[in-house]
Amino acid sequence: MNIKGYAPGWQLRCRKCGFTQDAANAGIVRIRAFGVRAGTFGKKLILRRCPKCRQIGFHALELEHDPIDSHFEQKFVKIIIILLLFLAIFPPSLFFGIRYELSKATVYQQAVEQISHNPDVIKALGQPIECKMWNGSIQNGHAEIHFRVNGSKNSGIAYIIADKKEKNWDYQKLVIVLNDGQQIILPVHNTRF
Fold first, then answer.
1. Strand order in the sheet with 56-63
2. Contacts of 119 (CB under 8 A, 6+ apart)
């Protein structure tokens, strides 16, 4: 039975259990759709007890077949999924892309070359020697960086201080500090790689 002034075509949905009933049967009066719209996707929310789950909560007052709202909800869900995928993929790819570009820095590559061919380093660390990604800074032709150096027998951290003169790097310091505290100082005075 649909009384004039009640809400033809509208339904009341429990947001907890999903139970849906005709708004007119639920006693909802909706004259000329006047009122404040709020809540999810612009639906009006009404606080009441659900006849099925018996929980008190907000029920959504919505059209039985609202293609505009349904279309909007589908678009909204797609946008949220795209944003979540973007947030899941973009930061790691940006981080690893930057780290990859940093690994191609000339000052780092030249130091790795010097370390991996130095007989004192090979004796202390063992072969093969693996150098990890560097940390530190390279600004205005001045580099202060450090990175992990691993070998088959031991490992440590390489510390570099270098200045760029024209197209070459002058290394003031190239030291490897092993895990046991021993230091290997590589000869770099007036040497350009």
1. 20-22, 10-14, 56-63, 44-49
2. none
The pair of structure tokens assigned to 155 is 């490992």
Helix H segments across the chain? 67-103, 106-117, 119-125
What one-letter code names the amino acid at 167? K
Helix (H) or strand (E) holding 149: strand 142-150
DSSP 12-36: EEETTT--EEETTTTT-B-STT-S-
Q: Is the CB of residue 60 less than 8 Å from the CB of residue 38?
A: no
Of 61, 63, 65, the closest CA to residue 28 belongs to: 61
Radius of gyration in angstroms for the set of CA atoms belonging to the chain, rounded to a whole number:
34
Query: Which residue did the predictor score with more confidence, 63 or 1?
Result: 63
Place of tokens 């088959």: 152
Tokens 């008190």 sit on residue: 56
Q: Residue 128's closest CA among 137, 116, 120, 140?
A: 116
The dihedrals phi and psi of 159, each to the nearest 5 degrees, come to -115, 130
Q: How many CA atoms lie within 13 A of 38 on its CB side?
A: 7
* d(C-alpha 52, C-alpha 117), whole Å: 77
Query: Average model confidence (pLDDT) for the chain?
Result: 77
Query: How far is 25 from 130, CA to CA, in rounded Å?
Result: 75
- Predicted local confidence at residue 70, as pLDDT: 56
